[in-house]
Amino acid sequence: MPIYSESFAAAFGLLASSDQDLMEILALSINVSLASLVLSCVIGLPIGAFLAMRHFPMRDFLVGVFNAMMGLPPVVVGLLVYLHLSRSGPFGWLGLLYTPQAMVIAQMILITPIIIALSCQVLEDLHEDYKDFFDSLVVPKRTALLAYIIDARYSLMTVILAGFGRAISEVGAVIIVGGNIDHLTRVMTTAIALETSKGELAMALALGFILLAISLAVNFLVQWLKASARRRAYV
Amino acid sequence: MSNQTGMVQRGLMPITVQNITLTLNERMLIDDLSCIIKSDGMSVIMGPNGAGKSLFMRCLHGLAKPDMGQILYADTPLDPLIRQQQSLVFQTPTILRRTVLANLLFVARQRGIDDPKISMDYLAQLQLDHLAQHPARLLSGGEKQRLALARALIINPAILFLDEATSNLDPASIETIETNLQSVSKQGMKIILVTHDIGQAKRLADDVLFLHHGKLAEHSPAKSFFQKPKSGAAKAYLAGKLVL
Amino acid sequence: MKFAILFAAGAACLATAAMADSTILVQSTTSTKNAGLYDYILPMVKADTGITVNVVAVGTGAAIKNAMNCDGDVLLVHSRKRENQFVAAGYAKQRYDVMYNDFVVIGPANDPAGIDGAKDITAAMVKIAVSKSKFASRGDDSGTHSKEKSLWAMAKVDQAASSGDWYRETGSGMGATLNTAVGMGAYALSDRASWGAHANKADFKIMVEGDQRLFNPYGVMLVDSQKCPTVRSKEGQIFIDWLISAKGQAAIASFKLEGKQLFFPNAE
User: Which of B35, B196, B218, C244 could be a cystine partner for B231, CB 3.0 to 4.6 Å?
Assistant: First the structure.
């Protein structure tokens, strides 16, 4: 199909000329995704660790809920955030709707369950492996947690990158709460949606290729981390 | 080996076990067991599979808690301070996802032994020094178990427990481990081990606790146990006839 | 519960000033945005008034609802009936005429309903229905969608009864609906601007145009500060005044796509 070559050429042209609009959109995409990722990790990793190491009555139920929430439809999250941040909603006074901050909140809600559920899984496996040994050594809980995080760092890195991948490729939530406003809240995915709606399919695909390149880079990073983990037997 | 921890060690011995019982899933695994384990030498726990040996050892160490009865360490019930002076080597050792040296350092640092040189000495003692920077999870079974023993010894415990620690190991590793056990035992460390290997028990044991169906069938000095066992179960086991 | 906690945490982290003071938010329609009108006139607005205008482009229905939630300072849409309701409900003091464009029916070159060049829109729509030719509808409660429904009503066709058959409701914006129509060889009603700016035309072309009933007026309204105290009334009114001024009207008239004027100023 000729559209592929056309799109590839367009993508290459945009990158080669470091097109200013593209760079702005790309930077916002990465910034919003990174900000939501950092917040999600700050919230999600301790919860994941807590769920991995403690057993309490609602624990399995909560793990199930977070696992299910990994599949939250972005549009639903976007709508909920919209309703809360709208001037007529409970947090309207913050004036956050149609700002990058609103997009960060929406993405944070989308990826926090991923961070929780996957980190819980990783740490739980390690906890199963280490707990008798640590118990026999009378290792304090905090030392144990630190050891889990150190020894699971490669797996946890994979978890974090999975969250980033979800954030950067998501469109349904950010287009509702961000509004796809030019030079303010337009990111890669909403720009693709806009170009598609304008019928500029080659341009949309070109932007898609660039987004795909980011995803590929992130995934290669994951693969590389896994390989180096295997090399050092941190498996 | 001197006590490098600098920790004031309380006397833990002898261990007095008074009528302990442990039930799991409605099965009585330890049934009204009482004994006194003397202060020195190597006490070997033997018995057929399912007799409750490992569980009994876990009770002694504090990893498992009896439903009834109590265990006294020189008249004191188990507390974290006592547990910190015990080491346990599992049948399948848990190896941290780190280098060999880092595995040992992690344990040493739990007891304030920060100097890597001391860790290196222990590695040398167990013939692992050439593997210090090697990923520990890639060691062979024998090397892993030697590392586990180094981790157990470096904290200079008052009591060292070994739960079938040498089963399935190569003869060289078994010999290294046994030599080390004899050496630390001579220096006064109490050793309690579970084994299926009658030859090993004969080589190491000062006294034998023979368990059968969760009960202590016999507790005798090693010499008399192997020459003329008192209980029928022990007789059958030594003759290779008692399977369960 | 969890959601609320996460939410509060996130909001607290991010409670920063949202937009600069000389910035207003316009809730508007995809037709104006996709055609490129805003890209053309907003730099002039900025130069003349110093106001930065941000535009959220959604369907007219969504734009009105967003404005009723106070999530916008100015509303610029095209659905006369609902604009009047908006004013009647007190969300705006006044509606201003600003411009119009017109609707066209586009379709594939093979023209299965035989409507190419028709001058009577209702007759053309009857032909589409009778021949059961595919028709892609916005189906999204937008201004274009309500216009289309009123045209079916004028043609006395119960198109909704055939929904899913020859009548296909995409539930999407104008661009997505045009992509769908081109993809499945269906007719569609579009504003002239959106179609003119749409890049993915394949062999499609305008079939029906010029009927008086295809007239598409846009209205602009300042969201009322009594309903929505956060509205930037001063800047919003400056923007509206600019649009309906001689200069603004001339700017709208001078916006051309491929040499053709798309919007016709009609402020009084």
Answer: B218
pLDDT for position A232: 67
Query: So what CATH class is B15-238?
Result: alpha beta
CA atoms within 13 A of residue A171's CA, in its CB half-sphere: 11
Asked if the model's pLDDT at residue B4 lies above 60, the reply is no
Q: What is the ipTM of this complex?
A: 0.84
CATH 1.10.3720.10 correct for A2-231: yes
Return the sign of the alpha-carbon dihedral for residues A138, A143, A149, A151. Answer: negative
Check B96 against A143: CB less than 8 A apart. no
Amino acid symbol at B47: G
Q: Where are the domains of chain A?
A: 2-231
User: By CA distance, what is B134's nearest residue in A?
Assistant: A232
Subunits in contact with chain A (3 or more CB pairs closer than 8 Å): B, C
**Which chain A residue has the Cα nearest residue C181?**
A199
| Residue C42 and residue C106 in one domain | no
- Nearest chain A alpha carbon to C6: A109
As for how many domains chain C has, the answer is 2
A33 contacts A168 by C-beta, under 8 angstroms: yes
Contacts of B93 in chain A (CB under 8 A): 133
- Cis previous bond, B77, omega within 30: no
Residue C95 and residue C107 in one domain:
no
Regarding whether C222 and C207 lie in a shared domain, the answer is no
Q: Are residues C207 and C235 in the same domain?
A: no
B interface test, pick of A127, A132, A133 with most B CB neighbours within 10 Å: A133
Residue of chain B whose alpha carbon sits nearest to that of A154: B97
Question: Which pair of tokens denotes residue A99?
Answer: 């700002």
Give the best residue of B7, B65, B97 to mutate against chain A (max A CB count within 10 A). B97
Are B56 and B211 in contact, with CB atoms under 8 Å apart?
yes
- Give the tens place of pLDDT for each residue, C175-231: 889 998 998 899 999 999 889 889 899 999 999 999 989 988 999 999 999 999 999
Q: Are residues C209 and C106 in the same domain?
A: yes
For chain C, what is the mean pLDDT?
A: 89
CB pair distance less than 8 Å for C56 and A109: no
Domain of residue C36 covers 2-101+216-265
Which of B228, B191, B216 lies closest to B43 in space, CA to CA?
B191
